[in-house]
Amino acid sequence: MNKKNINIVLIVLLACCFLSLKNVENFVFYKDIIIPKGWPKPVYNFKENKLTKEGFELGRKLFYDPILSRDSTISCSSCHSQYTGFAHTDHALSHGIEGRIGTRNAMPLINLAWAKTFHWDGGVLSLEAQTINPITNSQEMDNTLVNVLGKLNHSKKYKSLFNNVFGDSIVTTKKLLQAIAQFTVSLQSCNSKYDKVMRHEKDIFFTDQEENGHRLFKRNCESCHKEPLLTNNNFADNGLPIDQDYKDYGRLKITQNPKDSFNFRVPTLRNIEFTYPYMHDGRFMKLREVINFYTDGKIKRKTLAKELQQPILLNENEKKDLIAFLKTLTDKEFLFNPKFSFPK
């Protein structure tokens, strides 16, 4: 990576790990991003969509601009708020234009460079294509790509911005999706207390309660929420009773394979303190409710994940300790970084 590209990366990804980066030796360059040592290699194809400062800023503007919706009333950020881990906390189910209610809760947008598939059911296979669903979904933005491109190509501002990024002012579907992906792939969270403890940063340690919570986590949770990403990016039936309104069977709709019934994506637990409500239908508002479900509420059925076949036994103090650990996954430098906020 030459000096120019290094400078671009540092500017674009300042918020991810670098606002208070002290131990530079704990991070490495990989393709177009900087990641902590010991993390797996990202799976995103940076060669096909090379990050630039201009591309990141264009994607950021598009992410926050309601121009993408049919009536120009909601943006990507309407359901993915930075302060809540780029998740949707106002409602159990995400809301679209004209107050329309969707069927699932919007997932947090965190560390997407490591994801091979997207959405709760894995129905999208690339970060670029992921944007198409909310734009065209009738319960969300209710728009068409043709209409979006028409709006953008009639905007002097956007034609100039696209020209700066792609060397051509004509807005195409490919350019639109690549620009938004340059922003969303940069939403990297790796500077929580948990991360600093794992990096052995000076004078940062778990409390006794957090330490015990970490032990309980490794014993009961890590088989699915694998460190350091706090997800295995797979799909599983976690034993959640089916919702009575939508009867959502998850990945079954995509694969038509009965073995995938009740299978949903294993979400990352990073910033879990702020990404409520929990589960694909937002049925739980508090972490205590989630933990109580796993200890006392799972439904046993043929598709239940093998990792959850045995009971999870936790007393009240252990539940408190586990929650204390989960709160160490909060990365405030990510949640409140101005580089990821509404562009001025």
Keywords summarizing the entry:
mainly alpha; 14 helices; 344 residues; 4 strands; 33% helix; two-stranded antiparallel ribbon
Plain-language structure description:
The chain is mainly alpha-helical. It is built from 14 helices and 4 strands. The strands form 2 sheets. A two-stranded antiparallel sheet has the order 1-2. A hairpin with a 2-residue loop joins strand 1 and strand 2 (33-36). The radius of gyration is 20 Å and the shape is globular. The two termini are 30 Å apart. The model is unreliable at 5-19 (pLDDT under 50).
- Portion of residues within helices: 25-40%
The strand order across the widest sheet is 1-2
Distance between the termini: 30 Å
How would you state the average pLDDT, rounded?
93
**Count of distinct strands:** 4
Any idea what the shape is?
globular
Largest sheet: 2 strands, antiparallel
Query: Which secondary-structure class do the elements indicate?
Result: mainly alpha
Share of β-strand residues: under 5%
Unreliable residue runs: 5-19
DSSP summary: helix tally: 14
Helices and strands, in order, run as: HHEEHHHHHHHHEHEHHH
Radius of gyration: 20 Å
